[in-house]
Specification:
alpha/beta, 5-stranded mixed beta sheet, Aspartate Aminotransferase, domain 1, Aspartate Aminotransferase, domain 2, binds pyridoxal-5'-phosphate, 2 domains, 7-stranded mixed beta sheet, 433 residues
Length: 433
C-alpha cells in the first residue's frame, strides 16, 4: 500500500505495509521461503511473461524484501526500488544495467574505496571504461562525455573529503545528452534526496545509516522514474532495443502498463536473475527495523556531530577539521543546497604529529569502536593512513584528502559527554598541544 504522507517520519514507519491480511501482524513478517506456489498454469505463465506481477523465487523477489523496496522508494521520492545483498552489488548493478562492453561512464573521483576498485579494475576487466573527473567543476562531466557514455556517477557526501557533490548541475548536463546521474546517497539518507535535484537513480549501502545498527550488509537501487530514456534512444540501447536475455523485450515498451520503471525492472529481471545478489529476507527485515527510526537517528547523529566538530575545532592538537560546516565558498553553497537536515555525521580531522599521533589517538580510545565502517548507532573511528589508505602512495593519499595524521569519525548516538570524554582521551595520547 502507499501511505498518503510526504513526511519521512511517517513514510519510514508505514510505506509498503499495513497489517497482514491473514493474521493481522503489524510488524512486517519474515517470509523465509525460497519459492511461491502458482495458483495454476495460467498464473505461472502470466508471472513469467511479466503480464502479472507476483513472486516466483526469492532470488528475484520476496514479500519482506518487497516492503523494504517500497519503503525506500517512498522515502527517496522514487518510482520503485531493488534491494540487493550489499552496497557493492548495488553500485555494480546500477552501472551494469546500462553499460556494456565498449561503453563508458563518467564518475566523480570522490568515491568510497570499494567503488573505486570496482570501477577502476573489475568493470574495466568487464569492458566498461570509467572516466574519473574532478567534481569541483561540473563541466568536467561534459568534457569526458562521448557517444558511448551511458551514465554519470557520484556520491552525495563522499568521505574523506566530505565535499558535497553538485547534483543538479551535473544532472542537468546529463539530461542534455540522455545520460542519467546515479548518486550514492549512503552517507546522507533523510538529510539529502538526490532525486529532488535531478538525479535519476539513487544507490545505497543500507549497511550504514538506513540499517543503522551495524547488523546487516545490504544495498539498494532506487529508480527515480523521472528520466526519459526514450528521448535519445541511441544513447541507452540497453533499455530501448530488444533484450535477447528476456525474449527480445524492449524494456521501455514492456513496462509501459506499470509505470516509468524500465530501468529497475530490467535490473531485477536480468542482472539479479543472472548474478543472484539477493538479500536474505531476514536481513531485509533487520534493515526495515532500522529504517523505522532513521529519521530520529539522523537528527541525533547530526546534532552530536556538530558538537564534536565545534569541540575539535578549538583544540590545539588539531590542525583542521573536515566537515561541511567548516567549508566556505562554493563548497559550502553546495552543502547548503543539497543537505537539508544538517551536515551529516561523518567528520575528519588532522592531528599535529602525523602518522604516530594518529596511531596513538586511535589506540587510546575506549568507547569508540576502531572499525572500517560508518553509520552505526555507536561511534566509530579509523585512521586511514594505517588502514584503508595504507596502500596508497603518499601523493595519492594527499590527493584524496587523506594525510598521515588524518582521523575519520562516524559519530553515534551515545550521550555527547561520553563521546567528548573519549575524544579527550585520544587527544591526550596524541599530544601535540
Ligand atoms: N557506498 C559507500 C558510500 C560506502 O561507504 C560503502 C561501504 O562502506 C559502500 C557503498 C559499499 O557498501 P557495502 O559495504 O554494503 O557493500
Amino acid at each position: 500500500m502507499t501511505i498518503d504522507s510526504n513526511h519521512p517520519e511517517t513514510i519510514a514507519l508505514h510505506a509498503g505495509w499495513r497489517a497482514d491480511a491473514v493474521n493481522g501482524a503489524v510488524a512486517v513478517p519474515i517470509y523465509q521461503t525460497t519459492s511461491y506456489q502458482f495458483r495454476d498454469t495460467e498464473h505461472a505463465a502470466n508471472l513469467f511473461a511479466l503480464k502479472e506481477l507476483g513472486h516466483i523465487y526469492t532470488r528475484i523477489g520476496n514479500p519482506t524484501t518487497g516492503v523494504l523496496e517500497a519503503r525506500l522508494a517512498a522515502l527517496e521520492g522514487g518510482a520503485a526500488a531493488l534491494a540487493l545483498s550489499s552496497g557493492q552489488a548495488a553500485s555494480a548493478f546500477a552501472v551494469q544495467n546500462l553499460a556494456k562492453v565498449g561503453d563508458n561512464i563518467v564518475s566523480s573521483t570522490d568515491l568510497y574505496g570499494g567503488t573505486w576498485n570496482l570501477f577502476a579494475n573489475t568493470l574495466k576487466d568487464q569492458g566498461v571504461e570509467v572516466r574519473f573527473v574532478d567534481p569541483a567543476d561540473p563541466d568536467n562531466f561534459r568534457r569526458a562525455t562521448d557517444d558511448r557514455t551511458r551514465a554519470y556517477y557520484a556520491e552525495t557526501l563522499p568521505n574523506p573529503k566530505l565535499t558535497v557533490f553538485p547534483i543538479s548541475e551535473v544532472a542537468a548536463i546529463g539530461r542534455e545528452y540522455g545520460i542519467p546521474l546515479i548518486v550514492d546517497n549512503t552517507a546522507a539518507p533523510i538529510i539529502a534526496r538526490p532525486l529532488d535535484h535531478g538525479a535519476a537513480i539513487v544507490v545505497y549501502s543500507t549497511t550504514k545509516y538506513l540499517g543503522g545498527h551495524g547488523t546487516s550488509i545490504g544495498g539498494a537501487i532506487i529508480d527515480g522514474g523521472n528520466f526519459d530514456w526514450e528521448r535519445f534512444p541511441q544513447r541507452q540501447p540497453a533499455l530501448t532495443t530488444p533484450d535477447p536475455s528476456y525474449h527480445g523485450a524492449i524494456w521501455t515498451e514492456a513496462v509501459k502498463p506499470i509505470g516509468p520503471v524500465a530501468y529497475i525492472i530490467k535490473a531485477r529481471t536480468t542482472l539479479l536473475r543472472d548474478l543472484g545478489s539477493a538479500p536474505s529476507p531476514f536481513n531485509a527485515f533487520l534493515t526495515l527495523q532500522g529504517i523505522e527510526t532513521v529519521t530520529l537517528r539522523m537528527e541525533r547523529h547530526v546534532q552530536n556531530t556538530q558538537k564534536v566538530v565545534d569541540f575539535l575545532a578549538n583544540r590545539s592538537e588539531v590542525i583542521k577539521v573536515i566537515h561541511p560546516s567548516q567549508q566556505t565558498g562554493e563548497m559550502r553553497r553546495r552543502a547548503d543546497a543539497y543537505l537539508k537536515g544538517g551536515y551529516g555525521a561523518l567528520l575528519g580531522f588532522e592531528l599535529k604529529g602525523g602518522l604516530e599521533a594518529g596511531r596513538r589517538f586511535i589506540d587510546a580510545l575506549t568507547m569508540f569502536y576502531h572499525v572500517a565502517n560508518i553509520g552505526d548507532a555507536r561511534s566509530l573511528a579509523i585512521h586511514p593512513a594505517t588502514t584503508t589508505h595504507s596502500q596508497l602512495a603518499e601523493e595519492s593519499q594527499l590527493a584524496s584528502g587523506v594525510t598521515p595524521g588524518y582521523v575519520r569519525l562516524s559519530i553515534g548516538l551515545e550521550h555527547i559527554d561520553d563521546i567528548l570524554a573519549d575524544l579527550e582521551r585520544g587527544l591526550a595520547a596524541a599530544g601535540g598541544a
